[in-house]
Amino acid sequence: MERSIERLPNDGDIRDLMGLRTVAATVLVAFFIGTFALVGATTRPIGSGTAGVLAEVGAWLVTSVAAIALIRAPGDPLGRSVTAGVAAAGPLATVLVLLVVDDPFVRVLTFWPLSATTALCTYLCVRGRTLVAWASMLVAILVAGVWAIGVGQGFGYGISISLINLAPLLMSSFFAVTIRPAAREIYLLQGAGTEAAAAEAARRAALEERDRQLGRLDDRARPLLERLVDAAPLSTGEQDECGLVEARLRDSLRAPTFDVRSVADAARQARSRGVEVILLDDRGLAGADDEVRDRVIGGAVTALTSARTGTVTIRILPPRRRVLATVLQVTDDDVVREEYDDRGLLISAD
């Protein structure tokens, strides 16, 4: 049984393997709560009065809370404090109900806390607490034996009406010994598969990016490279075109966020007017919403379109800065600096 408490990997939880996070598990717990509420209400000993009502309600409450904790509490194995609470719930419910039962020949359903204890202990095994589950079940059986002595039937009678509850616990213990170690292997294989898939996705992304860059280079640079093969000297217009293509390729490497048609066209037009354009990207927009990205790109296009002379430097700052992006326009007689916050909104213009 010691193997049953073997800890699963940090990213694995037996609740996922057993479906304890699903709607079906929640419905099952709801049936557990509803069933024992009905049983408790219909089997309350006649003549027990208010004490009987309080005992049944108290027993029902502690077992219900324990059942909810078994599927809601995180961690594997189940946390010690939650384990202690669940383990105590069954014996406590048994004590509460048997305190108001003085007739040993009542209906079997009157001893419903023993069945509730069995259910709780079964799932304690599932949650990696087999030894504690057995301790809880044995304490509940001991309570039944002591009660039997009190009503004059002897310790053996109390044990005899309780032993049937050990069968489900034996099966859950077998599960804990066999399936939980297998669950560890399942999660390890799952993790290896996830890592392999991530590596393959990264490889494919790298290949796609390479193909995209090669296609871009082919579209932009090939005509000029073919022209350079000719012996005839380049015209002034062709030399200017070479400079513009080189600047566009440099922008795509230094500022991939700005590698969109709107910015590229605006930068090309600004450079054609004699404006020096510098685009820098320190990844501050990585993971940003499309709306934020569009605002920053829109601000860059506006700055490039309005520039007539001088230098325009547009930079996306590193992540977790107060300012997300800056636009610096420098001319012979003026310097204008604009700053954009993490929402992509203009916050200052000096």
Put the structure in a nutshell.
The protein has about 350 residues and is an alpha+beta fold. The chain has helices spanning about 15-20, 25-40, 50-70, 80-100, 110-125, 130-150, 155-160, 165-230, 235-255, 260-270, 290-305; strands spanning about 275-280, 310-315, 325-330, 335-340, 345-350. Strands 1-2-3-4-5 form a 5-stranded mixed sheet, covered by helices on one side.
* Helical residue percent band: 55-70%
Q: Give the biggest sheet.
A: 5 strands, mixed
Structural category is: alpha+beta
Mean pLDDT score, rounded?
A: 84
| Low-confidence runs | 1-11
General shape: elongated
From the alpha-carbon coordinates, what is the Rg to the nearest angstrom?
A: 37 Å
Strand content: 5-15%
Number of strands: 5
Number of domains: 2
Q: How many angstroms separate the termini?
A: 72 Å
Number of helical elements: 11
Instruction: Please trace the helix and strand order, writing H or E for each element.
Output: HHHHHHHHHHEHEEEE
Oligomer designation: single chain
Features:
alpha+beta; five-stranded mixed sheet; about 65% helix
Q: What topology does this entry show?
A:
Elements (H helix, E strand, L loop, with lengths): L13 H5 L4 H20 L6 H24 L7 H19 L13 H15 L3 H21 L4 H6 L5 H64 L6 H19 L6 H12 L3 E6 L8 H17 L4 E6 L8 E6 L4 E6 L5 E4 L1
Parallel strand pairs: 1-2
Antiparallel strand pairs: 2-3, 3-4, 4-5
Helix pairs in contact: 2-3, 3-4, 3-5, 4-5, 4-6, 5-6, 5-8, 6-8, 8-9, 9-10, 10-11
Description of the molecule:
- This protein has eleven helices and five strands; from the N terminus they run ααααααααααβαββββ.
- The chain has helices at residues 14-18, 23-42, 49-72, 80-98, 112-126, 130-150, 155-160, 166-229, 236-254, 261-272, 290-306; strands at 276-281, 311-316, 325-330, 335-340, 346-349.
- The chain folds into two domains: 2-193, no CATH class; 255-349.
- The chain starts with 13 loop residues before the first helix and ends with a strand.
- Helix 4 packs parallel to helix 6.
- The chain has a five-stranded mixed beta sheet with strand order 1-2-3-4-5, covered by helices on one side.
- Mean pLDDT is 84; it is low at 1-11.
- A hairpin with an 8-residue loop joins strand 2 and strand 3 (325-330).
- The protein is an alpha+beta fold and 350 residues long.
- The longest helix has 64 residues, at 166-229.
- The radius of gyration is 37 Å and the shape is elongated.
- Helix content is 63%, strand content 8%.
